[in-house]
Amino acid sequence: MNTRRILAVAAAWTMGAAGLAGPLLAAETITVKGSDTMVILGQRWAEEYMKANKDVTIQVTGGGSGTGIAALINGTTTLANSSRPIKAEEKEAAKKNGSDVIEFKTAMDALAVVVNADNPINHLTMQQIGKIYTGYINNWKQVGGPDKRILRYTRESNSGTYVFFKEHVLNNRDYAADAQTMPGTSAVAEAVSKDAAGIGFGGVAYFADNPKLRILKIAKDDKSEPISPLLTGGKINFEVVWSQTYPISRYLYVYSAGQPKGAAKAYLDWILGPVGQQIVEKIEYVPMPGHAGSERTAAN
Amino acid sequence: MSASPEIEEPVHAAPRREEAGPAPRRRRGRLMEFLIESFLLVNGFVAIAAISLIFLFLFKEGIQAFRTIPASHFLQGRELDFDNVPQTVMMWQPVGQNPKYSLVPLLLGSFLVALPATMIATLFGVACGVYLAEVAGKRTREVIKPSIELLAGVPSVVIGFFCLATLATLLQNTLHTTFRLNAMVGAIGVSLVIVPVIATMTDDALRAVPAYLREGAHALGANRWETITRVVVPAGASGLVAAILLGMGRALGETMIVLMATGNAAQVTLNPFDSVRTMTATIAAELGAVPQGGEQYRALFLVGSILFTITFLINLVAEIAVARMRKRLAL
User: Fold this and answer.
1) Helix ranges restricted to H, A23-153
2) Do A177 and B100 touch (CB under 8 A)?
3) Counting Cβ atoms within 10 Å, is residue B225 exposed (0-12), middle (13-18) or buried (19+)?
4) Core-most of B86, B262, B302, B311, by most CB within 10 Å?
Protein backbone atom coordinates (compact mmCIF):
# COMPACT_ATOMS: atom_id res chain seq x y z
CA MET A 1 0.00 0.00 0.00
CA ASN A 2 2.73 2.43 0.97
CA THR A 3 4.94 1.60 -1.99
CA ARG A 4 1.95 2.04 -4.24
CA ARG A 5 1.20 5.43 -2.75
CA ILE A 6 4.81 6.49 -3.15
CA LEU A 7 4.77 5.29 -6.76
CA ALA A 8 1.57 7.21 -7.42
CA VAL A 9 3.00 10.36 -5.90
CA ALA A 10 6.22 9.87 -7.82
CA ALA A 11 4.27 9.40 -11.04
CA ALA A 12 2.24 12.55 -10.38
CA TRP A 13 5.39 14.53 -9.69
CA THR A 14 7.13 13.21 -12.79
CA MET A 15 4.18 14.25 -14.91
CA GLY A 16 4.04 17.63 -13.22
CA ALA A 17 7.76 18.07 -13.61
CA ALA A 18 7.55 17.11 -17.28
CA GLY A 19 4.89 19.79 -17.78
CA LEU A 20 7.01 22.41 -16.08
CA ALA A 21 10.25 21.29 -17.66
CA GLY A 22 9.78 23.39 -20.78
CA PRO A 23 9.52 26.91 -19.36
CA LEU A 24 11.57 26.23 -16.24
CA LEU A 25 14.30 24.06 -17.60
CA ALA A 26 16.97 26.04 -15.87
CA ALA A 27 14.99 26.42 -12.63
CA GLU A 28 16.35 25.27 -9.30
CA THR A 29 13.89 23.93 -6.76
CA ILE A 30 14.25 24.46 -3.03
CA THR A 31 11.93 22.49 -0.76
CA VAL A 32 11.24 23.78 2.72
CA LYS A 33 9.38 21.68 5.26
CA GLY A 34 8.56 21.90 8.97
CA SER A 35 7.08 24.15 11.63
CA ASP A 36 3.43 25.06 11.22
CA THR A 37 4.06 28.28 13.13
CA MET A 38 6.43 29.26 10.36
CA VAL A 39 4.34 28.20 7.37
CA ILE A 40 2.91 31.64 6.70
CA LEU A 41 6.28 33.28 7.24
CA GLY A 42 7.98 30.70 5.03
CA GLN A 43 5.43 31.07 2.27
CA ARG A 44 5.64 34.86 2.33
CA TRP A 45 9.43 34.65 2.08
CA ALA A 46 9.14 32.19 -0.82
CA GLU A 47 6.58 34.32 -2.71
CA GLU A 48 8.64 37.48 -2.43
CA TYR A 49 11.86 35.71 -3.28
CA MET A 50 10.38 34.03 -6.34
CA LYS A 51 9.03 37.38 -7.57
CA ALA A 52 12.57 38.73 -7.62
CA ASN A 53 14.27 35.51 -8.77
CA LYS A 54 12.20 33.89 -11.51
CA ASP A 55 14.63 31.02 -12.03
CA VAL A 56 14.11 29.60 -8.53
CA THR A 57 11.12 27.58 -7.33
CA ILE A 58 10.53 27.28 -3.60
CA GLN A 59 8.01 24.86 -2.14
CA VAL A 60 7.01 25.42 1.48
CA THR A 61 5.00 22.89 3.48
CA GLY A 62 4.15 22.48 7.17
CA GLY A 63 3.70 19.30 9.14
CA GLY A 64 5.48 20.37 12.32
CA SER A 65 9.05 21.11 13.35
CA GLY A 66 9.79 17.43 14.05
CA THR A 67 8.48 16.37 10.64
CA GLY A 68 10.67 18.95 8.94
CA ILE A 69 13.84 17.95 10.77
CA ALA A 70 13.13 14.26 10.08
CA ALA A 71 12.78 15.07 6.38
CA LEU A 72 16.08 16.97 6.49
CA ILE A 73 17.83 13.98 8.06
CA ASN A 74 16.36 11.65 5.42
CA GLY A 75 17.41 14.02 2.67
CA THR A 76 13.88 14.63 1.37
CA THR A 77 13.94 18.37 1.90
CA THR A 78 16.50 21.09 1.21
CA LEU A 79 15.71 23.15 4.30
CA ALA A 80 13.75 22.53 7.49
CA ASN A 81 11.78 25.18 9.39
CA SER A 82 11.65 24.70 13.13
CA SER A 83 10.21 26.71 16.00
CA ARG A 84 12.39 24.75 18.44
CA PRO A 85 16.15 24.07 18.43
CA ILE A 86 17.27 20.76 16.97
CA LYS A 87 17.78 17.93 19.49
CA ALA A 88 21.15 16.26 20.06
CA GLU A 89 19.89 12.89 18.82
CA GLU A 90 18.55 14.48 15.65
CA LYS A 91 21.99 16.01 15.03
CA GLU A 92 23.55 12.58 15.58
CA ALA A 93 21.14 10.94 13.14
CA ALA A 94 21.99 13.52 10.50
CA LYS A 95 25.71 12.95 11.04
CA LYS A 96 25.22 9.22 10.50
CA ASN A 97 23.54 10.04 7.21
CA GLY A 98 26.61 11.98 6.22
CA SER A 99 25.96 15.65 6.92
CA ASP A 100 26.34 18.15 9.73
CA VAL A 101 23.19 20.14 10.34
CA ILE A 102 23.75 23.88 10.08
CA GLU A 103 21.50 26.17 12.09
CA PHE A 104 20.18 29.59 11.03
CA LYS A 105 18.27 31.79 13.45
CA THR A 106 15.93 33.59 11.09
CA ALA A 107 13.39 35.37 13.29
CA MET A 108 12.05 35.63 16.84
CA ASP A 109 8.66 35.32 18.43
CA ALA A 110 7.20 36.13 21.85
CA LEU A 111 4.17 34.55 23.47
CA ALA A 112 1.94 36.74 25.60
CA VAL A 113 -0.05 35.48 28.58
CA VAL A 114 -3.37 37.30 28.99
CA VAL A 115 -6.12 37.64 31.55
CA ASN A 116 -9.45 39.44 31.50
CA ALA A 117 -9.18 43.20 32.06
CA ASP A 118 -11.41 42.86 35.16
CA ASN A 119 -8.81 40.61 36.77
CA PRO A 120 -6.54 42.72 39.03
CA ILE A 121 -3.53 40.45 38.39
CA ASN A 122 -0.91 42.13 36.23
CA HIS A 123 2.15 39.95 36.59
CA LEU A 124 3.02 36.31 37.22
CA THR A 125 6.21 34.28 37.44
CA MET A 126 7.00 31.49 34.97
CA GLN A 127 6.51 28.96 37.75
CA GLN A 128 3.09 30.35 38.64
CA ILE A 129 2.00 30.15 35.01
CA GLY A 130 3.33 26.59 34.79
CA LYS A 131 1.45 25.62 37.94
CA ILE A 132 -1.73 27.28 36.71
CA TYR A 133 -1.65 25.45 33.38
CA THR A 134 -0.73 22.08 34.86
CA GLY A 135 -3.52 22.29 37.43
CA TYR A 136 -1.55 22.86 40.64
CA ILE A 137 -2.87 26.36 41.10
CA ASN A 138 -6.61 26.44 40.62
CA ASN A 139 -7.79 29.65 42.23
CA TRP A 140 -6.79 33.22 41.45
CA LYS A 141 -6.57 33.73 45.23
CA GLN A 142 -3.40 31.60 45.26
CA VAL A 143 -1.56 34.15 43.14
CA GLY A 144 -2.99 37.23 44.86
CA GLY A 145 -6.16 37.66 42.84
CA PRO A 146 -9.87 37.35 43.65
CA ASP A 147 -11.39 34.14 45.06
CA LYS A 148 -12.34 32.63 41.71
CA ARG A 149 -11.63 29.31 40.02
CA ILE A 150 -9.09 29.78 37.23
CA LEU A 151 -10.39 28.91 33.77
CA ARG A 152 -7.55 27.90 31.47
CA TYR A 153 -7.67 28.32 27.74
CA THR A 154 -5.17 26.64 25.46
CA ARG A 155 -4.82 25.75 21.78
CA GLU A 156 -5.49 22.58 19.82
CA SER A 157 -2.59 20.15 20.12
CA ASN A 158 -1.56 20.57 16.48
CA SER A 159 -0.51 24.15 17.13
CA GLY A 160 3.19 24.93 17.43
CA THR A 161 2.30 27.42 20.14
CA TYR A 162 0.69 24.64 22.18
CA VAL A 163 3.87 22.58 21.95
CA PHE A 164 6.24 25.48 22.65
CA PHE A 165 4.24 26.54 25.70
CA LYS A 166 4.11 22.94 26.94
CA GLU A 167 7.87 22.54 26.56
CA HIS A 168 9.02 25.90 27.89
CA VAL A 169 6.44 26.94 30.46
CA LEU A 170 4.99 23.61 31.58
CA ASN A 171 8.40 21.86 31.45
CA ASN A 172 6.82 19.09 29.35
CA ARG A 173 4.14 18.33 31.91
CA ASP A 174 0.59 17.86 30.68
CA TYR A 175 -1.93 20.65 30.51
CA ALA A 176 -4.59 20.34 33.21
CA ALA A 177 -7.47 18.22 31.89
CA ASP A 178 -9.93 21.08 32.30
CA ALA A 179 -7.94 23.40 30.01
CA GLN A 180 -10.31 24.27 27.19
CA THR A 181 -8.81 23.92 23.73
CA MET A 182 -9.56 26.70 21.28
CA PRO A 183 -9.25 26.48 17.51
CA GLY A 184 -7.04 29.57 17.20
CA THR A 185 -5.36 32.37 19.09
CA SER A 186 -8.17 34.76 18.18
CA ALA A 187 -10.63 32.31 19.77
CA VAL A 188 -8.48 32.35 22.92
CA ALA A 189 -8.62 36.16 22.91
CA GLU A 190 -12.40 36.06 22.47
CA ALA A 191 -12.87 33.54 25.29
CA VAL A 192 -10.67 35.34 27.82
CA SER A 193 -12.27 38.69 26.98
CA LYS A 194 -15.67 37.18 27.89
CA ASP A 195 -14.47 35.24 30.89
CA ALA A 196 -13.52 37.19 34.00
CA ALA A 197 -11.66 34.19 35.47
CA GLY A 198 -9.95 33.16 32.24
CA ILE A 199 -6.29 32.95 31.29
CA GLY A 200 -4.86 32.39 27.81
CA PHE A 201 -1.68 32.67 25.75
CA GLY A 202 -0.58 33.24 22.18
CA GLY A 203 1.27 35.54 19.82
CA VAL A 204 1.41 39.09 21.22
CA ALA A 205 -0.14 40.61 18.09
CA TYR A 206 -3.46 38.85 18.69
CA PHE A 207 -4.02 40.51 22.07
CA ALA A 208 -2.36 43.89 21.85
CA ASP A 209 -5.37 45.93 20.67
CA ASN A 210 -8.10 44.31 22.77
CA PRO A 211 -9.26 46.58 25.64
CA LYS A 212 -10.95 43.67 27.46
CA LEU A 213 -7.66 41.83 27.85
CA ARG A 214 -4.56 42.48 29.91
CA ILE A 215 -1.19 41.22 28.69
CA LEU A 216 0.70 40.12 31.80
CA LYS A 217 4.22 41.03 32.77
CA ILE A 218 6.19 37.86 33.30
CA ALA A 219 9.10 37.24 35.68
CA LYS A 220 11.64 34.47 35.15
CA ASP A 221 11.51 33.62 38.87
CA ASP A 222 10.61 35.11 42.28
CA LYS A 223 13.68 37.33 42.32
CA SER A 224 13.43 38.73 38.81
CA GLU A 225 11.68 41.83 37.63
CA PRO A 226 8.40 41.10 35.75
CA ILE A 227 8.82 42.09 32.09
CA SER A 228 6.11 43.15 29.66
CA PRO A 229 6.44 42.07 26.03
CA LEU A 230 4.99 45.42 24.99
CA LEU A 231 6.22 48.97 24.70
CA THR A 232 4.04 51.67 26.26
CA GLY A 233 2.49 52.36 22.86
CA GLY A 234 1.21 48.77 22.63
CA LYS A 235 3.78 47.55 20.09
CA ILE A 236 5.98 44.51 20.67
CA ASN A 237 9.12 45.44 22.58
CA PHE A 238 11.83 44.03 20.35
CA GLU A 239 14.59 44.71 22.89
CA VAL A 240 13.22 42.37 25.57
CA VAL A 241 12.62 39.64 23.00
CA TRP A 242 16.11 40.00 21.51
CA SER A 243 17.76 39.85 24.93
CA GLN A 244 15.27 37.15 25.98
CA THR A 245 14.68 39.04 29.22
CA TYR A 246 11.03 38.47 28.35
CA PRO A 247 10.95 34.80 29.38
CA ILE A 248 8.63 33.34 26.74
CA SER A 249 10.66 34.34 23.71
CA ARG A 250 11.81 31.90 21.07
CA TYR A 251 13.89 31.76 17.95
CA LEU A 252 12.45 30.53 14.70
CA TYR A 253 15.08 28.43 12.96
CA VAL A 254 15.91 27.21 9.48
CA TYR A 255 18.15 24.15 9.29
CA SER A 256 20.16 22.88 6.36
CA ALA A 257 22.05 19.61 5.93
CA GLY A 258 25.64 20.72 5.40
CA GLN A 259 26.62 24.23 4.34
CA PRO A 260 23.91 25.45 1.94
CA LYS A 261 25.05 25.84 -1.64
CA GLY A 262 23.86 27.62 -4.76
CA ALA A 263 20.21 28.69 -4.74
CA ALA A 264 19.64 27.62 -1.12
CA LYS A 265 22.56 29.74 0.07
CA ALA A 266 21.34 32.76 -1.88
CA TYR A 267 17.85 32.27 -0.46
CA LEU A 268 19.09 32.04 3.15
CA ASP A 269 21.27 35.11 2.71
CA TRP A 270 18.22 36.97 1.42
CA ILE A 271 16.09 35.81 4.40
CA LEU A 272 18.70 37.07 6.84
CA GLY A 273 19.14 40.30 4.89
CA PRO A 274 17.03 43.46 5.13
CA VAL A 275 14.23 42.36 2.74
CA GLY A 276 13.65 39.00 4.43
CA GLN A 277 13.71 40.60 7.88
CA GLN A 278 11.23 43.28 6.81
CA ILE A 279 8.80 40.51 5.89
CA VAL A 280 9.25 39.04 9.38
CA GLU A 281 8.23 42.35 10.88
CA LYS A 282 5.33 42.80 8.47
CA ILE A 283 3.64 39.59 9.60
CA GLU A 284 4.18 40.55 13.23
CA TYR A 285 6.99 38.32 14.29
CA VAL A 286 10.19 39.82 15.67
CA PRO A 287 13.07 40.31 13.24
CA MET A 288 16.58 39.34 14.28
CA PRO A 289 18.54 41.92 16.31
CA GLY A 290 19.74 44.87 14.25
CA HIS A 291 17.02 44.55 11.65
CA ALA A 292 14.20 46.68 13.07
CA GLY A 293 12.33 48.61 10.40
CA SER A 294 12.21 52.40 10.19
CA GLU A 295 8.86 52.58 12.00
CA ARG A 296 10.32 50.74 14.96
CA THR A 297 13.41 52.87 15.16
CA ALA A 298 11.21 55.95 15.28
CA ALA A 299 9.13 54.44 18.10
CA ASN A 300 12.25 53.78 20.13
CA MET B 1 -37.31 12.62 5.57
CA SER B 2 -39.54 10.42 7.67
CA ALA B 3 -38.76 6.80 8.18
CA SER B 4 -42.32 5.84 7.40
CA PRO B 5 -41.80 3.29 4.58
CA GLU B 6 -40.39 0.75 6.99
CA ILE B 7 -43.10 1.09 9.53
CA GLU B 8 -46.07 1.48 7.26
CA GLU B 9 -45.09 -1.48 5.20
CA PRO B 10 -47.30 -4.05 6.95
CA VAL B 11 -50.34 -1.84 6.40
CA HIS B 12 -49.75 -1.26 2.72
CA ALA B 13 -47.96 -4.45 1.82
CA ALA B 14 -51.08 -6.40 0.92
CA PRO B 15 -52.67 -4.00 -1.61
CA ARG B 16 -49.30 -3.31 -3.24
CA ARG B 17 -48.82 -6.96 -3.98
CA GLU B 18 -52.25 -7.22 -5.53
CA GLU B 19 -51.40 -4.44 -7.98
CA ALA B 20 -48.33 -6.27 -9.10
CA GLY B 21 -50.34 -9.47 -9.35
CA PRO B 22 -51.07 -11.78 -12.24
CA ALA B 23 -52.71 -9.19 -14.51
CA PRO B 24 -51.56 -9.80 -18.12
CA ARG B 25 -48.64 -7.63 -19.12
CA ARG B 26 -46.58 -7.11 -22.19
CA ARG B 27 -43.06 -8.44 -22.40
CA ARG B 28 -41.55 -4.98 -22.49
CA GLY B 29 -43.32 -4.02 -19.32
CA ARG B 30 -41.94 -7.10 -17.62
CA LEU B 31 -38.45 -6.34 -18.80
CA MET B 32 -38.73 -2.79 -17.51
CA GLU B 33 -39.97 -4.11 -14.22
CA PHE B 34 -37.10 -6.55 -14.01
CA LEU B 35 -34.59 -3.81 -14.74
CA ILE B 36 -36.06 -1.47 -12.17
CA GLU B 37 -36.19 -4.22 -9.59
CA SER B 38 -32.56 -5.14 -10.23
CA PHE B 39 -31.58 -1.49 -10.02
CA LEU B 40 -33.25 -1.14 -6.65
CA LEU B 41 -31.72 -4.40 -5.46
CA VAL B 42 -28.22 -3.25 -6.44
CA ASN B 43 -28.79 0.02 -4.64
CA GLY B 44 -29.79 -1.84 -1.54
CA PHE B 45 -26.59 -3.86 -1.67
CA VAL B 46 -24.49 -0.76 -2.29
CA ALA B 47 -25.56 0.47 1.15
CA ILE B 48 -24.48 -2.81 2.71
CA ALA B 49 -21.20 -2.78 0.82
CA ALA B 50 -20.52 0.83 1.81
CA ILE B 51 -21.10 0.09 5.49
CA SER B 52 -18.90 -3.01 5.38
CA LEU B 53 -16.10 -1.14 3.65
CA ILE B 54 -16.26 1.72 6.14
CA PHE B 55 -16.15 -0.82 8.96
CA LEU B 56 -13.17 -2.59 7.43
CA PHE B 57 -11.25 0.61 6.70
CA LEU B 58 -11.84 2.08 10.16
CA PHE B 59 -10.87 -1.07 11.99
CA LYS B 60 -7.88 -1.80 9.79
CA GLU B 61 -6.39 1.59 10.69
CA GLY B 62 -7.70 1.66 14.25
CA ILE B 63 -6.42 -1.77 15.26
CA GLN B 64 -2.88 -0.73 14.33
CA ALA B 65 -2.89 1.69 17.24
CA PHE B 66 -2.26 -1.34 19.45
CA ARG B 67 1.05 -1.96 17.67
CA THR B 68 2.76 0.98 19.36
CA ILE B 69 0.45 1.90 22.24
CA PRO B 70 -0.02 -0.64 25.05
CA ALA B 71 -3.71 -1.44 25.56
CA SER B 72 -3.66 -0.20 29.16
CA HIS B 73 -2.75 3.30 27.93
CA PHE B 74 -6.21 3.64 26.43
CA LEU B 75 -7.47 3.52 29.99
CA GLN B 76 -4.81 5.49 31.86
CA GLY B 77 -1.27 6.80 31.62
CA ARG B 78 1.44 7.86 34.07
CA GLU B 79 2.72 11.33 34.69
CA LEU B 80 5.09 12.97 37.17
CA ASP B 81 3.38 15.59 39.30
CA PHE B 82 5.00 18.87 40.30
CA ASP B 83 7.00 17.15 43.05
CA ASN B 84 8.09 14.48 40.53
CA VAL B 85 5.94 11.79 42.14
CA PRO B 86 4.45 9.47 39.49
CA GLN B 87 0.66 9.61 39.28
CA THR B 88 -1.86 7.62 37.24
CA VAL B 89 -3.92 9.92 35.10
CA MET B 90 -6.81 9.41 32.71
CA MET B 91 -6.01 11.94 30.09
CA TRP B 92 -6.27 12.43 26.35
CA GLN B 93 -3.22 14.47 25.46
CA PRO B 94 -1.57 12.86 22.46
CA VAL B 95 0.95 15.62 21.76
CA GLY B 96 3.95 15.98 24.05
CA GLN B 97 6.96 14.17 25.40
CA ASN B 98 4.81 11.55 27.09
CA PRO B 99 1.60 11.19 25.06
CA LYS B 100 -1.62 10.16 26.85
CA TYR B 101 -4.33 8.24 25.05
CA SER B 102 -6.99 7.55 27.69
CA LEU B 103 -10.36 7.11 26.01
CA VAL B 104 -12.22 7.57 29.31
CA PRO B 105 -12.64 11.37 29.13
CA LEU B 106 -13.74 11.16 25.49
CA LEU B 107 -16.32 8.44 26.13
CA LEU B 108 -17.63 10.32 29.17
CA GLY B 109 -17.73 13.52 27.15
CA SER B 110 -19.70 11.94 24.33
CA PHE B 111 -22.28 10.47 26.65
CA LEU B 112 -22.42 13.59 28.82
CA VAL B 113 -23.65 15.42 25.73
CA ALA B 114 -25.69 12.65 24.08
CA LEU B 115 -27.66 11.53 27.15
CA PRO B 116 -29.00 14.95 28.24
CA ALA B 117 -29.62 15.79 24.57
CA THR B 118 -31.63 12.60 24.13
CA MET B 119 -33.57 13.27 27.32
CA ILE B 120 -34.48 16.80 26.31
CA ALA B 121 -35.32 15.74 22.79
CA THR B 122 -37.39 12.79 24.04
CA LEU B 123 -39.45 15.05 26.22
CA PHE B 124 -40.31 17.41 23.38
CA GLY B 125 -40.06 14.98 20.48
CA VAL B 126 -42.36 12.30 21.88
CA ALA B 127 -44.90 14.86 23.06
CA CYS B 128 -44.83 16.46 19.65
CA GLY B 129 -45.14 13.10 17.87
CA VAL B 130 -48.09 12.05 20.04
CA TYR B 131 -49.78 15.36 19.39
CA LEU B 132 -49.26 15.04 15.64
CA ALA B 133 -50.48 11.45 15.45
CA GLU B 134 -53.33 11.48 17.91
CA VAL B 135 -54.54 14.98 18.70
CA ALA B 136 -53.81 17.44 15.91
CA GLY B 137 -56.39 18.02 13.21
CA LYS B 138 -55.43 17.61 9.60
CA ARG B 139 -54.79 21.34 9.07
CA THR B 140 -52.63 21.79 12.15
CA ARG B 141 -50.68 18.72 11.23
CA GLU B 142 -50.03 20.07 7.77
CA VAL B 143 -48.44 23.14 9.28
CA ILE B 144 -46.55 21.56 12.17
CA LYS B 145 -45.03 18.50 10.53
CA PRO B 146 -43.21 20.36 7.73
CA SER B 147 -42.02 22.97 10.24
CA ILE B 148 -40.44 20.27 12.38
CA GLU B 149 -38.84 18.77 9.33
CA LEU B 150 -37.54 22.20 8.45
CA LEU B 151 -35.84 22.35 11.86
CA ALA B 152 -33.97 19.19 10.89
CA GLY B 153 -32.68 21.02 7.86
CA VAL B 154 -30.97 23.82 9.79
CA PRO B 155 -27.22 23.35 9.25
CA SER B 156 -25.59 22.20 12.46
CA VAL B 157 -22.90 24.85 12.17
CA VAL B 158 -25.64 27.47 12.46
CA ILE B 159 -27.01 25.83 15.59
CA GLY B 160 -23.46 25.56 16.90
CA PHE B 161 -22.86 29.23 16.34
CA PHE B 162 -26.13 30.11 18.06
CA CYS B 163 -25.09 28.01 21.08
CA LEU B 164 -21.61 29.53 21.16
CA ALA B 165 -22.69 33.13 20.80
CA THR B 166 -26.06 33.37 22.54
CA LEU B 167 -27.17 30.30 24.44
CA ALA B 168 -23.88 29.85 26.34
CA THR B 169 -23.96 33.36 27.78
CA LEU B 170 -27.67 33.11 28.56
CA LEU B 171 -27.19 29.81 30.36
CA GLN B 172 -24.20 31.06 32.31
CA ASN B 173 -26.03 34.18 33.44
CA THR B 174 -29.05 32.22 34.64
CA LEU B 175 -27.38 29.14 36.11
CA HIS B 176 -24.01 30.71 37.05
CA THR B 177 -22.03 27.79 35.70
CA THR B 178 -18.24 27.80 36.04
CA PHE B 179 -17.67 27.01 32.39
CA ARG B 180 -19.36 29.22 29.85
CA LEU B 181 -19.08 26.50 27.24
CA ASN B 182 -20.08 23.15 28.70
CA ALA B 183 -21.68 19.79 27.94
CA MET B 184 -25.17 21.13 28.63
CA VAL B 185 -24.85 23.94 26.08
CA GLY B 186 -23.84 21.33 23.54
CA ALA B 187 -26.65 19.00 24.64
CA ILE B 188 -29.31 21.67 24.15
CA GLY B 189 -27.93 22.42 20.70
CA VAL B 190 -27.81 18.76 19.76
CA SER B 191 -31.34 18.22 21.07
CA LEU B 192 -32.55 20.76 18.49
CA VAL B 193 -31.16 18.48 15.80
CA ILE B 194 -32.72 15.30 17.13
CA VAL B 195 -36.15 16.58 18.18
CA PRO B 196 -37.29 16.30 14.53
CA VAL B 197 -35.92 12.75 14.30
CA ILE B 198 -37.79 11.64 17.40
CA ALA B 199 -40.98 13.59 16.63
CA THR B 200 -41.44 12.32 13.07
CA MET B 201 -40.56 8.76 14.01
CA THR B 202 -42.95 8.81 16.96
CA ASP B 203 -45.65 10.17 14.68
CA ASP B 204 -44.98 7.42 12.14
CA ALA B 205 -44.91 4.71 14.79
CA LEU B 206 -48.20 5.78 16.34
CA ARG B 207 -49.92 6.16 12.99
CA ALA B 208 -48.95 2.58 12.23
CA VAL B 209 -51.03 1.47 15.22
CA PRO B 210 -54.17 0.02 13.61
CA ALA B 211 -57.39 2.02 13.97
CA TYR B 212 -59.33 -0.89 15.45
CA LEU B 213 -57.29 -0.66 18.65
CA ARG B 214 -58.40 2.96 19.15
CA GLU B 215 -61.97 2.13 18.18
CA GLY B 216 -61.98 -0.77 20.61
CA ALA B 217 -60.75 1.47 23.40
CA HIS B 218 -63.39 4.07 22.65
CA ALA B 219 -66.02 1.35 22.55
CA LEU B 220 -64.97 0.27 26.04
CA GLY B 221 -65.58 3.82 27.25
CA ALA B 222 -62.00 5.11 27.35
CA ASN B 223 -61.57 8.83 26.76
CA ARG B 224 -58.91 10.20 24.43
CA TRP B 225 -56.21 10.54 27.13
CA GLU B 226 -56.80 7.00 28.31
CA THR B 227 -56.76 5.73 24.73
CA ILE B 228 -53.44 7.43 24.08
CA THR B 229 -51.68 6.49 27.30
CA ARG B 230 -53.03 2.99 27.80
CA VAL B 231 -53.61 1.68 24.28
CA VAL B 232 -51.90 3.57 21.48
CA VAL B 233 -48.58 4.40 23.15
CA PRO B 234 -48.09 0.90 24.62
CA ALA B 235 -48.93 -0.59 21.21
CA GLY B 236 -46.36 1.64 19.54
CA ALA B 237 -43.86 1.43 22.40
CA SER B 238 -41.18 -0.39 20.41
CA GLY B 239 -41.49 2.28 17.74
CA LEU B 240 -40.98 4.97 20.38
CA VAL B 241 -37.93 3.15 21.73
CA ALA B 242 -36.58 2.98 18.20
CA ALA B 243 -37.21 6.70 17.69
CA ILE B 244 -35.38 7.60 20.90
CA LEU B 245 -32.46 5.28 20.17
CA LEU B 246 -32.02 6.57 16.64
CA GLY B 247 -32.08 10.09 18.08
CA MET B 248 -29.38 9.10 20.53
CA GLY B 249 -27.26 7.57 17.79
CA ARG B 250 -27.52 10.83 15.93
CA ALA B 251 -26.61 12.76 19.10
CA LEU B 252 -23.46 10.68 19.61
CA GLY B 253 -22.40 11.32 16.05
CA GLU B 254 -23.08 15.06 16.01
CA THR B 255 -19.81 16.92 15.50
CA MET B 256 -20.03 20.58 14.60
CA ILE B 257 -22.29 21.67 17.44
CA VAL B 258 -20.26 19.91 20.12
CA LEU B 259 -16.99 21.13 18.65
CA MET B 260 -18.23 24.70 18.92
CA ALA B 261 -20.24 24.63 22.13
CA THR B 262 -18.75 22.20 24.64
CA GLY B 263 -15.46 23.98 25.40
CA ASN B 264 -13.30 21.00 24.43
CA ALA B 265 -11.62 20.10 27.70
CA ALA B 266 -11.01 16.35 27.88
CA GLN B 267 -11.64 15.93 31.59
CA VAL B 268 -12.95 12.99 33.55
CA THR B 269 -16.20 14.31 34.94
CA LEU B 270 -19.84 13.37 35.43
CA ASN B 271 -21.04 16.94 35.78
CA PRO B 272 -23.04 18.00 32.71
CA PHE B 273 -22.11 21.62 33.37
CA ASP B 274 -18.40 20.94 32.98
CA SER B 275 -16.54 21.54 29.77
CA VAL B 276 -16.05 18.25 27.89
CA ARG B 277 -14.46 16.87 24.75
CA THR B 278 -16.46 14.35 22.72
CA MET B 279 -15.06 11.62 20.49
CA THR B 280 -16.40 13.34 17.39
CA ALA B 281 -14.85 16.70 18.28
CA THR B 282 -11.51 15.03 18.99
CA ILE B 283 -11.43 13.42 15.57
CA ALA B 284 -12.61 16.55 13.80
CA ALA B 285 -10.11 18.82 15.52
CA GLU B 286 -7.06 16.58 15.45
CA LEU B 287 -7.21 14.30 12.42
CA GLY B 288 -6.60 17.06 9.89
CA ALA B 289 -3.21 17.93 11.31
CA VAL B 290 -1.58 14.66 12.34
CA PRO B 291 0.96 12.90 10.14
CA GLN B 292 -0.71 10.04 8.28
CA GLY B 293 0.07 6.61 9.65
CA GLY B 294 1.53 8.00 12.88
CA GLU B 295 0.64 6.94 16.38
CA GLN B 296 -1.90 9.69 16.99
CA TYR B 297 -3.43 9.10 13.55
CA ARG B 298 -4.08 5.45 14.41
CA ALA B 299 -5.35 6.33 17.89
CA LEU B 300 -7.87 8.68 16.28
CA PHE B 301 -9.01 5.89 13.99
CA LEU B 302 -9.45 3.72 17.04
CA VAL B 303 -11.65 6.41 18.55
CA GLY B 304 -13.61 6.43 15.28
CA SER B 305 -13.97 2.64 15.33
CA ILE B 306 -15.30 2.72 18.88
CA LEU B 307 -17.74 5.52 18.08
CA PHE B 308 -18.94 3.66 15.01
CA THR B 309 -19.39 0.44 16.97
CA ILE B 310 -21.43 2.22 19.63
CA THR B 311 -23.76 3.95 17.16
CA PHE B 312 -24.01 0.76 15.11
CA LEU B 313 -25.15 -1.20 18.17
CA ILE B 314 -27.64 1.50 19.12
CA ASN B 315 -29.12 1.53 15.62
CA LEU B 316 -29.21 -2.26 15.59
CA VAL B 317 -31.25 -2.32 18.80
CA ALA B 318 -33.54 0.32 17.30
CA GLU B 319 -34.06 -1.80 14.17
CA ILE B 320 -34.86 -4.83 16.30
CA ALA B 321 -37.39 -2.76 18.24
CA VAL B 322 -39.07 -1.65 15.01
CA ALA B 323 -39.16 -5.23 13.71
CA ARG B 324 -40.71 -6.39 16.95
CA MET B 325 -43.42 -3.73 16.78
CA ARG B 326 -44.21 -4.63 13.20
CA LYS B 327 -44.59 -8.24 14.15
CA ARG B 328 -46.85 -7.42 17.10
CA LEU B 329 -49.12 -5.09 15.15
CA ALA B 330 -49.44 -7.35 12.14
CA LEU B 331 -51.27 -9.93 14.30
Assistant:
1) 39-52, 65-73, 88-96, 126-134
2) no
3) exposed
4) B262
